[in-house]
Amino acid sequence: MEYKVLVKPDKVDENASKKAGIQIYMPQVLQEREQWAMNKGIIVAIGGMAFRDGFERWLEPIPKIGSKILYAQYAGANAQGVDGGEYRLINDKDVAAILEE
Predict the structure, then answer these.
(1) Preceding amide of 27 cis, omega within 30
(2) pLDDT per residue over 24-38, tens digit each?
(3) So where are the chain's domains?
(4) pTM for the full model?
């Protein structure tokens, strides 16, 4: 709806360090920095008004369905799809970058 973008977040393997036999202790200062981190994901749906407004603030390239993006860690809200998958519903302005791979 309107300016919303539905994103399928990349999965993070939280057990990777455990599988490798590594334990990581993160100091409080790094934990606080992590709050400002960006997340990666793929756009799966775009609202009709997303990336379009009267100020023409979105220049080429404009994100589209299938674009791999960076977005703010705490942007939007979690949503569970009918497929049981985890998604994130964010505002178009929370898209920080389009990633090329």
Answers:
(1) no
(2) 565 655 555 555 567
(3) 4-11+22-99
(4) 0.71
